[in-house]
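Quick one, tokens below. Sequence please?
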């Protein structure tokens, strides 16, 4: 007889809902969560997805909450929006993302205070300037500037990287003709030791951990 899954994933209009069993041992819950992420790749290797986690009647400690979040953040395209139990909903106030849909055409500049999820293309001659992170779910062929007020920990991701220029804080990307071949999945740009680097978005959690270590936070 097949064992009951401790994790149920449901698609909703604006993201995913993770329903976590509230009767099992916590260690078994974590193991099943890792297994679910590893064996359901079609959800977790694509564009940015908002996630709400529902704990049912389970009460968890801060340490247990961190363990759940750390596992989910291993998939770089998951943005955790809330942790919910039967008696409360715990928002994640430390990381808010504003969503904009459209096309940034040549000569247009889109400015935003905070983190931005842009659903659309940035055409050559178009520009996005943002004080936080920038997620482009579309083709990035123009210019984007993340961490515009000096945040070197900001990142830039895109479904297709073919930018005119990338900038994070005061660090400017390599010349456009040095960008690599077309990738098969989303990539992320970040600053490491004063240099712009590019990696797969699946490595985003490791990158963020390295940045925190470098910054001493």
């Amino acid at each position: 007889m097949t064992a009951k899954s401790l994790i149920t994933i449901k698609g909703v209009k604006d993201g995913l809902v993770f329903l976590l069993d509230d009767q099992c041992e916590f260690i078994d819950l974590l193991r099943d969560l890792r297994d679910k992420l590893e064996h359901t790749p079609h959800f977790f290797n694509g564009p940015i997805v908002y996630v709400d986690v529902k704990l049912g009647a389970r009460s968890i400690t801060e340490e247990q909450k961190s363990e759940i979040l750390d596992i989910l953040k291993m998939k770089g395209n998951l943005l955790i929006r809330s942790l919910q139990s039967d008696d409360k909903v715990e928002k994640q106030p430390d990381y808010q993302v504003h969503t904009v849909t459209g096309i940034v055409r040549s000569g247009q500049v889109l400015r935003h205070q905070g983190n931005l999820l842009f659903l659309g293309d940035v055409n050559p001659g178009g520009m996005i300037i943002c004080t936080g992170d920038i997620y482009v779910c579309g083709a990035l062929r123009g210019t984007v500037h993340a961490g515009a007020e000096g945040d070197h920990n900001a990142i830039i991701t895109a479904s297709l990287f073919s930018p005119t220029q990338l900038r994070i804080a005061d660090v400017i990307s390599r010349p456009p003709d040095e960008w690599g071949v077309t990738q098969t999945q989303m990539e992320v740009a970040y600053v490491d030791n004063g240099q712009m680097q590019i990696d797969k978005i699946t490595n985003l959690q490791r990158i963020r951990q390295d940045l925190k270590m470098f910054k001493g936070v």
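The chain is about 20% helix and 40% strand. Confidence is low (pLDDT under 50) at residues 213-217.
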